[in-house]
Specification:
- The protein is an all-alpha fold.
- It contains seven helices and no strands.
- The longest helix is centred in the last third of the chain and has 32 residues.
- The protein is elongated, with a radius of gyration of 17 Å.
- The protein starts with a helix and ends in a 10-residue tail after the last helix.
Length: about 160
């Protein structure tokens, strides 16, 4: 794998871990509602408020977090692609007696193109947000990452 692709994918993964609460905050017991644009906007707002209060962000930092949230949402949409049912797409790969390697490669290529296209903007937004934090806030983010398997921002 080319180094820049690897760095982009690592960066996307790290960013997703750092702000995973943007798409998961407030969903307990509420999975049946789905992810309409209104719900994504609602959850985005709740997550930004929760993260802002935990890190005690000022207005400028909160605005940069909002830009990052927007980039993450755009990246998620691009990564998901045009498919209405990604699970059905994956199930179609194994529907026959042979694994559909060419269709799997197409799906992989689409995902890689989405990561390559949106990755730099998302990394720049994350860098702008992280660099705007003071040393204590940066320390809090690093500590949260160290506890990544034990819930984020007090969740589960």
């Amino acid at each position: 794998m080319k180094p820049w692709i690897k760095r982009t994918l690592i960066g996307l993964t790290a960013t997703t871990v750092v702000l995973g609460g943007l798409t998961a905050c407030g969903t307990r017991g509420d999975h049946a509602r789905g992810w309409s644009d209104e719900r994504v906007t609602e959850v985005r707002g709740k997550a930004i408020e929760k993260i802002s209060s935990k890190l005690d962000l000022n207005a400028e930092q909160k605005a940069k977090l909002g830009v990052l949230a927007n980039e993450m949402i755009a990246s998620r949409k691009a990564f998901r692609g045009e498919s209405a049912n990604p699970r059905a797409d994956m199930a179609a790969l194994i529907a026959g007696d042979k694994f559909d390697r060419s269709k799997a490669q197409q799906l992989l290529d689409q995902k890689l193109q989405a990561a390559q296209g949106n990755g730099p903007k998302m990394l720049a937004a994350f860098g702008d947000f992280y660099d705007s934090l003071n040393p204590e806030q940066q320390k809090q983010v690093r500590e949260r990452l160290e506890r990544r398997g034990h819930g984020w921002w007090g969740r589960g």
